Every structure is written in C-alpha cells, then in structure tokens.
Amino acid sequence: MARTDRRLLVADDKDILVQNVEDAQWQVTVKGAAGNIGKIAHVDFGYTPDEVFVLPDFGVKATIWSLPSGRGVEIRDPKILQKGYDYRPATGHLAILTRPNAHDILLVLTPGTYEPITDIELPTIDARGLKWSPDGRWLAVWDTASAGSKVLIYTADGQLFKTYLGGKENDGVELGVKSVEWNPLSRSIAIGDFGENVTVLRSTT
Predict the structure, then answer these.
(1) What average pLDDT does range 43-67 have in this prediction?
(2) Which residues, including other chains, have CB under 8 Å from residue 101's CB and lie 6 or more apart?
C-alpha cells in the first residue's frame, strides 16, 4: 500500500487499485499490472500521482502505468530491487538499474515519455541500489557487499565523478554497503555498512 496526499494505492500480486481519499467515486483499476510474466513484486506511485511503477517478480520488464490513459511504458531487464530506481528531484528523470546481459546498465530516462537519454555500463559486480541527491546534481550507485564498500558517484549527465572503495576492518575484511543517504543540502553522503559503521563523504571533493 502506498499513498500521496489525495490518492491511496492498494495492490495484490496481480491487480492495482488507486482511489481518491477525498472523492469516493474516483478510482482506477489496473488489471494484470505485471502482465503475463509473473506476480507484482513491488509497486508504488511514479513521479506524479498519475503514474504507477510496477516491478514483477521476474526481471523481464518494469512497467510505468499512466492512470489517465491506462497505457503502460515498458522498461526491459530491470533489476528487481526496491532501491534499484529513483526519480530525479524537480525534473522527474528516472534512473533505473538494468541487467540485459552479464553487465549492470544504468539508464536515465526522460520524464513522462521515458525515452532513454543516458545508457551507462557500470563497473560493478551486482549493483544493489541507487539514489539521486536532493538537488539532482549527483547520482550514487552502490555495489553488492561481496564487492566491498563500493559506491560510485555520477553527475546528472552520466559522468563518473568519484569512486569510493571504503576502508577495511582490522581483520582486512570489507563488510559492504548496506545503505546510502544524502545530506539534505547534497553536500555530503553517508554510507552505512553491514558492520554498523557510517562513513560521511563530501560529494564535491
């Protein structure tokens, strides 16, 4: 279940219902939202309350449904991760992790039409998440724990700006990234690892 200020989203493993909490007569149902390729694994509103983002439990495609038109835009080969996509603040550009072959690909797509404008092969083993900075200037991507504490910082136009590789514990073991969070002013980024340590980096140096 997810909600905006006026809309409530409820879903089971196949269908989605969106209701207006201020107007009991207004509702939209999306039947078979995951298509015929599995069940819904994750669902939430898109950048606007008129969009619903759906990930199925098989990574064949993600679908962004338009509630006014009932049409869906498909994105092929998404990684099935709740943190595997994020909307850029202020503009609504969608960044999403995909894996069409043996490599992770970062896609950045235009708002509304979701046409790809950036397509980057990532130097990752198995990217586990991404997150835009609040000002939309930076995009952080982090790798699987087996790769150590690896975080990549990209500019909004897809240029690799910085790579953070972490610091090993006393026993020489890298514990891997568990979570990433930007400072509200986008001046720094906090990286939490599985050893309950937090490292804070300046985003611009």
Answers:
(1) 93
(2) none
Of the candidates 13, 75, 76, 79, the one whose C-alpha atom is nearest the C-alpha of residue 46 is: 75
Question: Model-level pTM?
Answer: 0.91
H or E element in which residue 17 lies: strand 16-20
User: Which residue from 20, 22, 107 is spatially nearest to 67, judged by alpha carbons?
Assistant: 20
Residues 160-178 have pLDDT tens digits of 999 999 865 545 566 799 9
The answer to whether the beta carbons of residues 134 and 142 sit under 8 Å apart is: no
Strand positions, DSSP E, 77-187: 85-87, 94-98, 105-109, 116-121, 129-132, 138-142, 151-155, 160-164, 177-182
